[in-house]
Amino acid sequence: MATTKTLTQRIVHDWLPVVVVLLAVVLAWYSAAWGMNAQGAIERVLDEEAGYTQMELFEATMTMERPLVPAPHQVAADFYESLTEWPIDSPRNLIYHVIVTGQSTLLGFAMGTALGLLLSVLIVHSRTLDKALLPWIVASQTVPVLAIAPIVLVVLGSLGFAGTAPKAFIAMYLCFFPVTVAMVQGLRSPQKIETEMMYTYAASRWQSLWLLRLPAALPFLFPALRVGVAAGLVGAMVAELPTGAQAGLGARLLTGSYYGQTTQIWSALVMSTLLGLALTGIVAGIERLVLRSRGAK
Amino acid sequence: MSDTAAIETAAGATGLAPWFWPGIVLLALVAGYSVYRMAAIQGRSWVGMATAALFGAWVVLFWEVLVRALDVPRVLLPAPSLVMGALWDHAPKLWGDFVQTVGKAVLIGWALGCGLGFCVAVAIDRMPFLQRGLLPVASLTSAIPLVGVAPIAVMWFGFDWPSKAAVVVLMTFFPMLVSTLAGLQAAGKLERELMYSYAASYPRTLLALRLPAALPFIFGALKVNATLALIGAIVAEFFGSPTAGLGFRISTEAARMNMPLVWGAIVVAAVTGSVAYALLVALERRAAFWHPSVREG
């Protein structure tokens, strides 16, 4: 397939379409900024009495103070300024918020993955738990945990847990579900002939779990981890929304929306996007390493 | 509410009887054994549901008993009876919230988002260039905390349901697009060649073979999106809403420490999510009864 292609062909075949789509998105963004800001620009910036040219109007929409839709270059400028003009420990630097949010996401992700693995092993080995627990685990995801986030924070705060732990708890709740469901599927994926072979070797349950079921479940686990880490990030960000959260990308979004700092909202969004992509990218990299060491393609 | 509070303090004041903990342990053993026996019943279709229901009932019972006996503060964890009471007392209010959030924002946003995702997927199915461009971008969006656009949506569309519906549309669009595209690739080569040998046109092949084969993928996305839509709408209400809505109720009552009503709103959301999920599963069984994934489980 792709191995037979030259580099140029591969660039044209795989990357050109993506670049075209991304360019279209940027263009659409610019035109949206132009269209949606026009009204405000006419009212606030331009002098209606003296009249103005279309060119002046366009320029005004691109350089407003608090635009309805900031133009991409405004967001990029705000983003760059936040990263370069402030020290890392200042709340005006986005990196500071990324560290805060990333910490609770990763902690929650680790806890959620551990919980998911434990639950899935228990469910696969016990019919009682399978029938009693699994429906509730599915139902648990219809509870908008994000909605409980403020309460959990208030409650844990009154117990003296503040900072990372409660946010990580929310992230964990969102992480454990995809891992549990995928691992139950994965641990049951070995075929009958393989399980019977373990039986003929007189392997204990524990051995067949360790030697057969877990390796067979790996291809199921990693996609779930990718979903889980993204869900955990959303959880951590929403957990930062309730008042009292001073730091983190979620808090940054909220303060931006309180004070009408649109550009700040957008650059926080861009940052959370980058963080999400970085986290899933790391998981995908680990996946590649692990599966390659196991002799997958 | 005041009489239940009186009972609570009375229970707390009398202290725990010496037989309390052994009694709890005994009851737990009975509960575990009953669930175990229930799960062991062979070959009845209702066993799964009944086991889960029994397990849930035991959990609620223990919750009630322990919360009352140990005098857990109501802010931390209200007893189920209190939550039921709040549901009963505030039914009209919660019904209004339900209509505001689910009836308007979630339903409209979910239908629009899924519909758009489906249509775009079918439209770009014929253009490999656009597929190669859009698919990576659309898959990456799953790593982005899209809920973050809520404050921007509130700025554009105001406080009422259109802004929530906009967030829901954005959140549900991409999963539907990716799933539908994957589903359209699901039909086997053999079947496609059969259609080709019948000289079937592209639309005919789409309707007779590829869309039916894609149904499990499409329903998968519909189910995931139902939960996503609910969460998206509720979180979007944290950023500003009219004086009704589940998200509004949760955030205001949490601020007033009226936990039973907060949990009542959460119960409403959870039941809504579960019912929507169950409805979609039933619909899938009707629509794709012939498909192996449905037949086998």
Would you kindly provide a brief summary of this structure?
The complex is a heterodimer of chains A (297) and B (297). Chain A is an all-alpha fold. In chain A, 77% of the residues lie in helices and 0% in strands.
Question: What would you say this structure looks like, in words?
Answer:
The complex is a heterodimer of chains A (297) and B (297). Chain A is mostly helical and 297 residues long. Chain A has helices spanning 7-44, 54-62, 72-84, 94-125, 127-140, 145-158, 164-187, 192-200, 205-239, 249-258, 262-293. Chain A is elongated, with a radius of gyration of 25 Å. Chain B contains 13 helices and no strands. At the A-B interface, helix 1, helix 5, helix 6, helix 9 and helix 10 of A face helix 2, helix 3, helix 6, helix 7 and helix 10 of B.
Tell me the radius of gyration of chain B.
25 Å
Residue share in β-strands of chain B: under 5%
The CA-CA distance between the termini of chain B, in Å, is: 46 Å
Low-confidence stretches of chain B: 1-13
Proportion of β residues of chain A?
Answer: under 5%
How many strand elements of chain B? 0
**Class inferred from helices and paired strands of chain B:** mainly alpha
Q: What integer is the average pLDDT of chain B?
A: 81
SSE run of chain A: HHHHHHHHHHH
Count of distinct strands of chain A: 0
Q: What overall geometry of chain A do the principal axes of the alpha carbons give?
A: elongated
Into which percent range does the helicity of residues of chain A fall? Answer: over 70%
